[in-house]
Amino acid sequence: MSCKRGRIGKESIERLLRFLNELEVQLLAPVSHESLYHLAEALAVLYGTGGGVENLPTKVFIDGIECEVLYASQAPGLIAGAWQLNVRIPEFASKGEVVWRAGERESVEGVHVALQD
Q1: pLDDT in tens, 29-48
Q2: Phi-psi category of 63—alpha, beta or left, where left has phi over 0 and alpha has psi -120 to 50?
Q3: Which of 19, 45, 60, 94 is deepest in the core (most CB within 10 A)?
């Protein structure tokens, strides 16, 4: 399992801010550059195998804390059985130990992602 984590570029932030400002909905709070950077830093994209080819109930834990799973399915464009998991990193995660549960299956021990403060 690997984790891709990085910063959103200034141009992407500007496009997203323009898009949000063009929406005809009322936002509960103003959207700022800082809040978007914070959101991007709290997300991780994980890839793995062993979850099977059917969509099973999926849970991801980092440091024993359950993550909010935003997307869990076959990884687009990869071989059958390769999964993509988009998760929100728990606020108090520090070591980066990852456990992925797909139905009754569970990932092997010793899988870690690098976390920055």
Answers
A1: 555 656 555 555 688 888 88
A2: left
A3: 60
In a domain, 28, yes or no: yes
Provide the b/e sequence for 14-52 (b: ≥16 CB within 10 Å). eebeeeeeeeeeeeeeeeeeeebeeeebebbbbebeebe
> Does 76 map to a domain?
yes
Phi, psi of 105 (to 5 degrees): -85, 150
| 89-104 pLDDT per residue, tens | 888 888 999 999 988 8
Which domain does 93 fall in, by range? 2-106
Place of tokens 């690098």: 114
